[in-house]
Amino acid sequence: MEEPQTQEAKPFSLLAKVYDAIMSDIDYEDWGEFILETAKKYGWRNDGLVLDLGCGTGNSTFPIFARGLQVVGLDYSAEMLEIARAKLPPVEFVQADFREIKLDREFSLVYSVFDAINNLLTDEDVLAMAKSIYDLLEPNGIFIFDVNTTIGLRELWANGKAEGWAGEVYYSWNHFFDEETGLAKVEAFCEDNDISFTETHYERPYDSGLISQLLSEVGFKETEILKYPGGGPAKADAPRIWVVAKK
Predict the structure, then answer these.
(1) Are residues 162 and 241 in the same domain?
(2) For 233, which DSSP code?
(3) Is residue 1 part of a domain?
(4) Alpha-carbon span 133 to 141, nearest angstrom
(5) Which of 65, 179, 184, 240 has its CA 20 to 30 A from that of 30?
(6) Taking a C-beta distance cutoff of 8 angstroms, is the pair 99, 121 a contact?
(7) In this structure, are 122 and 174 located in the same domain?
(8) In the chain, which residue ranges form alpha helices assigned H by DSSP?
(9) What is the pLDDT of residue 161?
(10) pLDDT digit string, tens, across residues 114-130
């Protein structure tokens, strides 16, 4: 039998076909519960439209939808969204660049999980994204997201490798942190019976001081940094944090 030829693919394109298998151990239900309970602590009324920013294949959208809330999923990857739409036909999914979101409605809550914001590689990118979200939020609306910090990407990702099997899918991740650019690089290789491919992803770390400053610059009046994954005060050396911002 001829082995599949390895393709070099754009980020989050061919990966969409095996993403759910690789992420099968993630507890999206816990994420959903944490986001909603945290939003309530900051005055969210448990109503209004909700936006899942960087929804991927819809796994992070489902816990919100399952609670009877009206949620919209947004992602840059058409391939990821195709799978999300097949899973959740009642949900509206929108393809858009985080930095240029144009929707004709307001949201009471916007959330983003699992490094999505780390894919924005410059201050200008984050400012553009944050301004888009600020403009989409209702007065007193809440924005909750997680980010990897410098310690998280430098120490946990530096020259690291993870590999294994997710069902019939073999995957291998090679992690590098470039001190000169300040960016983490992930080379992802996946192979199953039908396809073999590599994708190269970059992430930029964001520490609490910088992310709070950038959010303040676009108008968010209140920002709090919480411990990941369960909340509470975050330590200075936290590898990943939750950020809660209020319009």
Answers:
(1) no
(2) B
(3) no
(4) 10
(5) 184
(6) no
(7) no
(8) 16-22, 28-41, 62-66, 78-87, 123-136, 150-157, 208-217
(9) 80
(10) 999 999 999 999 999 99
